[in-house]
């Protein structure tokens, strides 16, 4: 009978088709009969960063064992016995893990493509026994998430990312900024309230979920140059141990590009957009830009080329509180500006940026903090004179810091600082006199 069927098939179906059918049949049969199951975890999930991939990436280096045959190692600092090089998993290297009696095999794979961005697509393959599939989902993945969370909470190095338009990827550098809340010169009550706001933000995941809000917090830092806006961003990153994504809005060619850029950032991070008043020149009303171009043929540094659709303000705002904002958790978004009054009112409307922080000129309390930082002194007989002068002279913390760095001899530095303030006060008085006459 079987012979008969085979003969009929041979006569009816061309050889090529027969080969195709039999290869598909064997493929299907081997999959059904195999006792193995494979999980695939891609770097991106439904167009955004895949947090499961990040968790596995953090977890696997803790599972390097005798069966591992290669490793990536590297360091951002000169090696010393107290800080051995960091380890990471190379492509195609197999990592074996055992969990609650299950045998689990991991491999990191990578495929290159010329057709899509990013050019490299990475994914993890996890093989286990088919009979363990449910246990892997219910117990093993939660175990990975918990372990990764505690590793990431303790991360000893922070990164700052900048977006590279050429490769359409965020590029990272180690972030080592010394600014902390302790070193910042600002009003103690303001500092305290920012720290409390951050503390309550990171611990209130359930609250955000309960009230149906995305777990995000927006800060607008404004004030004159040199008053510590960037230093405050660094202090926040150091305090929360969050990486920073430093976005130049001009590096996005269109709203959809911006969407790609923003969805490639990871959780527990700060999205920083500095000088938003300059960035939103691009983002302002297109027709206004055209009008401006007709009026003035000068090259505008912040403007994209005329063939470029550019980023619109609404594209940016969609991320702040639109539907896209619900992609990703535990994000802090910080805008800085020297000119709050120049910002589009849409950015300032209540509820858009949760906290507005004014970073102002140096106060008496600010000066005392800087004197402690730079000269290591908490009090000095000349402080009263200086504090008196500071009431009438506007000087930025950056200027004060520059003066205090002139020497490490407090007496000489403070006297020269008094002269500097007196000079500034005299200039102000001269100008006031001119205006009156
Ligand atoms: N509030 C401050 N506390 C401590 N140091 C400060 C403060 N403000 C400024 N400085 C010092 O001045 C330098 C410049 O400050 P920073 O870059 O933070 O100012 P900024 O407000 O971001 O200025 P810009 O508007 O030009 O970007 C810092 O590196 C720091 O040394
Ligand atoms: Mg700055």
From TrEMBL:
Q: Where's the AAA+ ATPase domain?
A: 215-363
The protein's required cofactor(s) are namely: Mg(2+)
Gene3D superfamilies, alphabetically? 6.10.280.40, P-loop containing nucleotide triphosphate hydrolases (3.40.50.300)
- Keyword Magnesium in the entry? The reply is yes
Its UniProt entry gives the catalysed reaction(s) as: ATP + H2O = ADP + phosphate + H(+)
Q: Which GO terms describe its biological process?
A: response to stress
Q: Which GO terms describe its molecular function?
A: ATP binding; ATP hydrolysis activity
Region Disordered: start-end pairs: 287-309
* Keywords linked to the UniProt accession: ATP-binding, Hydrolase, Magnesium, Nucleotide-binding
The keyword Lipid biosynthesis is annotated on this UniProt entry: no
PROSITE patterns, from UniProt? AAA (PS00674)
For this chain, the family text in UniProt reads: Belongs to the AAA ATPase family. BCS1 subfamily.
The record's section on PANTHER family has: BCS1 AAA-TYPE ATPASE
Annotated protein name in UniProt: AAA+ ATPase domain-containing protein
**Whose protein is this, by species?**
Corchorus olitorius
């Amino acid at each position: 009978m079987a012979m008969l069927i085979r003969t009929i098939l041979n006569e009816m179906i061309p050889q090529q088709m027969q080969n195709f059918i039999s290869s598909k049949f064997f493929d299907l049969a081997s999959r059904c009969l195999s006792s193995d199951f494979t999980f695939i975890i891609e770097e991106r999930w439904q167009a955004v960063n895949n947090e499961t991939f990040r968790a596995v990436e953090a977890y696997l280096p803790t599972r390097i064992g005798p069966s591992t045959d290669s490793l990536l190692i590297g360091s951002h600092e000169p090696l010393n016995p107290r800080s051995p090089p960091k380890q990471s998993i190379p492509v195609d290297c197999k990592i074996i893990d055992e969990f609650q009696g299950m045998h689990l095999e991991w491999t990191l794979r990578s495929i290159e493509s010329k057709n899509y961005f990013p050019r490299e697509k990475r994914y993890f393959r996890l093989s286990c026994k088919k009979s363990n599939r449910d246990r892997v989902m219910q117990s093993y993945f939660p175990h990975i998430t918990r372990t990764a969370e505690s590793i990431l909470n303790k991360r000893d190095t922070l990164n700052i990312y900048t977006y590279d338009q050429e490769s359409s990827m965020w590029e990272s550098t180690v972030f080592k900024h010394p600014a902390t809340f302790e070193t910042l010169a600002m009003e103690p009550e303001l500092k305290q309230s920012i720290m409390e706001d951050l503390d309550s933000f990171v611990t209130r995941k359930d609250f955000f979920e309960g009230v149906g809000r995305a777990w995000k917090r927006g800060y607008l830092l404004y004030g004159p140059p040199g008053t510590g806006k960037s230093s405050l961003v660094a202090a926040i990153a150091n305090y929360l141990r969050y990486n920073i994504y430093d976005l130049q809005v001009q590096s996005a060619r269109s709203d959809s590009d911006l969407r790609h850029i923003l969805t490639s950032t990871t959780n527990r991070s700060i999205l920083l957009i500095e000088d938003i008043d300059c960035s939103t020149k691009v983002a302002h009303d297109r027709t206004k830009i055209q009008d401006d171009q007709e009026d003035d043929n000068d090259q505008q540094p912040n403007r994209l080329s005329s063939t470029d659709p550019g980023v619109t303000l609404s594209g940016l705002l969609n991320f702040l509180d639109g539907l896209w904002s619900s992609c990703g958790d535990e994000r802090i978004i910080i805008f800085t500006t020297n000119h709050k009054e120049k910002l589009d009112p849409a950015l300032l409307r209540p509820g858009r940026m949760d906290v507005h922080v004014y970073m102002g000129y140096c106060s008496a309390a600010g000066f005392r903090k800087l004197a402690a930082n730079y000269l290591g002194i908490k009090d000095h007989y000349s402080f009263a004179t200086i504090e008196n002068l500071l009431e009438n002279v506007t000087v930025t913390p950056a200027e004060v810091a520059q003066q205090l760095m002139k020497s490490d001899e407090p007496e000489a530095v403070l006297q020269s600082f008094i002269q500097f303030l007196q000079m500034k006060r005299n200039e102000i008085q001269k100008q006031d006199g001119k205006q009156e006459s």
